[in-house]
Amino acid sequence: MENNFYDDWLSAARKADAERAAATIHARGRELRWMSTPQDARVAMVAGPQVGFRTMGGCVLIGEIASGWKTGRHSHGEESICILDGEGYSLIGGKKYSWQSGDCLQVYSEVPHQHFNNGPKPARYLQAMLAPLEAFMGILNYVQEAEAGPISDEERAQHSTLAEGDAGAVYSGEVHMEEVGAVSRSPVEDPYERTKKIHEAGRAYLAGRVILRKQDTQWKPTRQAGMRCALISHERGFSYRGVNFSLINEVPPHWHTGRHIHAEAMIYVLEGKGYSIIDGKRYDWEAGDLLHVQGPHTDHQHFNTEAVPVRYMRIGFTIRDLYPNYDKKEQVSTSGKIG
Ligand SMILES: [Fe+2]
Q1: Of the candidates 157, 162, 166, 302, which lies 20 to 30 Å from 268 by C-alpha distance?
Q2: What is the pLDDT of residue 186?
């Protein structure tokens, strides 16, 4: 029988399951395929459809900027950045933000940005985006304004006089993006008022916090890991919508995390070595590796086998939050000593 759209839908869940089962979920930092683009002289996709991952539209890249070099200047959809190594500064929406290893930046949609390494060694930064999802939606709009290359003397002189962007700037708009849905669904609201509110929400989104420096992170105990610090989060003043480096978990030596089940997330190992059990399979990892918790119901737990702490960063793709019925979150156990 000829295939039709309804047959496709009836088999879609099984097809997605098969795609997930065949996909890569563990990226090894040692095995990345580095390349050059107009934006980054050296860059590798860590996770994303192009390297065999079956994501919900997200991807993660790692970029390297040589000492004395800059990236290209471009704009596109929302992007979360974590500086893994080195020191430098970024121009984001015309403002300057100095950074060093451990700092996080949020670049809101369509805000032009460019990164500069004025430190003595190569800088590495991790980037999470929703480019595959936005491409599918037909809203991915990459604008390349300038290409990667050495920092010129002129730029050096000009940028040294720029004032530092406000590190404490918070999500200050009167209307929060979460309210936009309610605004646009309201049947009684004046349509002109409604449009105004949507524009206000857009401005509030762009007024969100841009940088969180490592020195300003706050560690708190958590039952899932040991210690945790929030990164790009609403509680820390960021107005992210789609993607964020949300937190770092620290697992003490010879401890395991809680075992739990939830929808899509990724973890990037910053420090240490260990293994994870994901849907019954074991994956041995080390710093620089990434693991994909594919969802919609992925059972997983992480183990620190060494005498030093493990630190891993959680990467959130909030498209999953639009489908709460698929995220049947379940906490099976809490963290503890490997016994
Ligand atoms: Fe970018």
Answers
A1: 166
A2: 64
DSSP state letter for 244: E
Is it true that domain 212-337 has CATH number 2.60.120.10?
A: yes
**Rounded distance between C-alpha atoms, residue 104 and residue 47, angstroms:** 19
Distance from residue 321's CA to the centre of ligand 1 (Å): 24
Of 112, 71, 69, 109, which Cα lies nearest the Cα of 92? 112
Centre a 10 Å sphere on the Cβ of residue 283 and count the other Cβ atoms it contains. Answer: 16
Report the pLDDT value the prediction gives residue 42, as an integer from 0 to 100: 98
Burial, 129: exposed, middle or buried (Cβ in 10 Å; 0-12, 13-18, 19+)? buried
CA of 309 to the centre of ligand 1 (A): 31
Model pLDDT, residue 168 = 63
| C-alpha 23 – ligand 1 centre gap (Å) | 26
| Domain residue extents for the chain | 18-160, 173-206, 212-337
Strand, helix or coil for residue 319 = helix
User: For residue 324, how far is its CA from the centre of ligand 1 (angstroms)?
Assistant: 29
DSSP string for 75-98? E-S-EEEEEEE-EEEEEETTEEEE
pLDDT, position 113: 96
CB 322 within 8 A of CB 249: no
One fold for 18-160 and 212-337 = yes
Question: Among 131, 108, 105, 130, which Cα is nearest to 116's?
Answer: 105
243 Cα: distance to centroid of ligand 1 (angstroms): 13
Spans of the chain below 50 pLDDT: 170-175
Residue 187: how many CB atoms within 10 A of its CB?
Answer: 4
Q: How many Å lie between the centroid of ligand 1 and the Cα of residue 52?
A: 22
Q: CATH number for the 18-160 domain, one of 2.60.120.10, 2.60.120.430, 2.40.37.10, 3.30.70.100?
A: 2.60.120.10
Write the burial class of residue 301 (CB in 10 Å: 0-12 exposed, 13-18 middle, 19+ buried): middle
